[in-house]
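Structure first, sequence second, as always.
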């Protein structure tokens, strides 16, 4: 088995618990239900496509309504993390591809970058 894994299955399970807890607390605040996750994911993907090919698409209002259901950037980020957590490259930095420290992921399971790359990213954006 040579698949590069940045975290162990146990760590992955621990992070999934963190993410689920966060979703639960977010949905308590926003009224968003876990059942909306699939819809939210679909809306997110549609939105991404919209950003890529600029022409207005029909159904845009539907997307906006669904995105409004997502209700917060954090909810979206946590949702994405739950979907990504099973990917082999989850826990690897988007920029330098080294492993993100598990301690960082525990605090921020939705983190896309290691601490140093995140700092650089925030400075340049
Ligand atoms: Zn990095």
């Amino acid at each position: 088995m040579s698949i590069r894994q940045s975290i162990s299955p146990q760590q992955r399970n621990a992070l999934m618990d963190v993410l689920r807890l966060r979703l639960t607390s977010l949905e308590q605040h926003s009224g968003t239900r876990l059942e909306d996750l699939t819809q939210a994911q679909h809306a997110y993907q549609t939105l991404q496509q919209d950003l890529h090919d600029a022409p207005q698409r029909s159904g845009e209002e539907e997307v906006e309504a669904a995105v409004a259901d997502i209700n917060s950037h954090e909810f979206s980020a946590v949702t994405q993390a739950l979907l990504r957590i099973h990917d082999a490259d989850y826990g690897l930095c988007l920029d330098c591809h080294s492993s993100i420290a598990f301690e960082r992921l525990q605090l921020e399971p939705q983190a896309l970058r290691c601490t140093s790359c995140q700092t650089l990213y925030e400075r340049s954006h």
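Margin note: The two ends are 38 Å apart (CA to CA).
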